[in-house]
Write a structure and sequence with these properties.
Oligomer: single chain
Distance between the termini: 16 Å
Strand content: 15-25%
Order of helices and strands: EHEEHEEEEHEHH
Number of helices: 5
CATH topology: Lysozyme-like
Structural class: alpha/beta
Radius of gyration: 16 Å
Helix content: 25-40%
Length: 180
């Protein structure tokens, strides 16, 4: 089971929910969280990191597929296995709006579980640790389990076509909510 680090809620936004994500990548043996942070804080084109100059040139030519670097990783918390030990990773400060789910970034804390849960369900220890992490955040912000959503649920709430399976087709979101 994981230890939940203390986190600073000074100047925190008044959060009304939590959105659960998966990285859609296998959990490696090293620190994947820093790789995700690097990706989010880099210039990107078609899912690849590119040099700033290339990004600026593409933007100048009107290419809308270019993404400028974000101020920080998009999520507030992560859960990943590093050297065979599950760890809670701290992302954006809770005083900063997220960049993880369109329409929910100003109101919902982003929690990313490292792993590809389209290919396999989370291991039992990952599941239990994710429940513990989310319960802790719920407790701090006095949130109900009904305020916890999977990323895929945010699309139907916004009345737009569902674009992602996140937190994965094998991540049973209803069971997760009931476990909370």
């Amino acid at each position: 089971m994981i230890d939940i680090p203390t986190f600073d809620i000074t100047n925190s936004i008044s959060w009304s929910g939590i959105v659960v994500h998966h990285s859609a990548t296998p959990d490696g043996k090293l620190n994947d969280w820093e790789g995700i942070r690097k990706f989010h804080t880099s210039w990107r084109y078609n899912g690849d990191i590119i040099e700033k100059e290339k990004g600026e040139n593409l933007l100048a030519n009107g290419d809308k597929r270019v993404l400028k670097p974000w101020a920080d990783i998009g999520y507030h918390f992560g859960l990943e296995r590093v050297n065979d030990v599950l760890q809670v990773m701290i992302g954006r400060p809770l005083s900063m709006v997220g960049a993880h789910a369109k329409g929910f970034n100003h109101t919902h804390i982003g929690v990313c579980i490292i792993g590809d849960f389209d290919k396999a369900a989370p291991a039992d220890d990952v599941w239990e640790s994710a429940v513990k992490l989310v319960r802790n955040v719920m407790y701090v912000f006095k949130l109900s389990h009904t305020c916890v959503l999977g990323h895929r649920e945010t699309f139907s709430i916004r009345n737009v076509p569902v674009e992602k399976t996140c937190p994965g087709s094998k991540f049973e979101m209803k069971n997760f909510q009931n476990s909370l």
